[in-house]
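Dear colleagues,

I hope this message finds you well. In preparation for our joint manuscript, I am sending the DUF2935 domain-containing protein (Mesobacillus maritimus) sequence together with its predicted structure, so that both groups work from identical material. I would be grateful if you could confirm receipt.
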Amino acid sequence: MELEQQKAILLATNMKEFVDLVLNAKNHPFGALSHPEKLLRLKLIVEEFRVETIAEELLRVNAYMWDERASRLLIERFKTAFHHISEYIGNNYNDLFFFSARIYTLEHDCRLFPE
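The corresponding structure tokens are as follows:
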């Protein structure tokens, strides 16, 4: 189960970094490249699904040992949120292309947990 625990921690870490990137995008130099209204909408989607809370809880649950039931529940919640986030970024790719690399990384991490 150590491998499953490490995969969950990897997913949670990447989720947290993605949230930090979205929430602080205006402070980064590439923030000017993104459309402000679409960037705000992305921020609201991330906050609506509480992705940061899911990431922190997944890190907390798996800090010392693998808790399969709680981890699977949190991962499924994230997959639901991630579907909406990736669809929004895909539909607005020209304005939010900077987030596509993180989306591909999270997509790969989600595939580590088959349903």
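For the figure legend, we might mention the following. The mean pLDDT is 91. The chain has one domain: 2-111.

With kind regards,
E.M.
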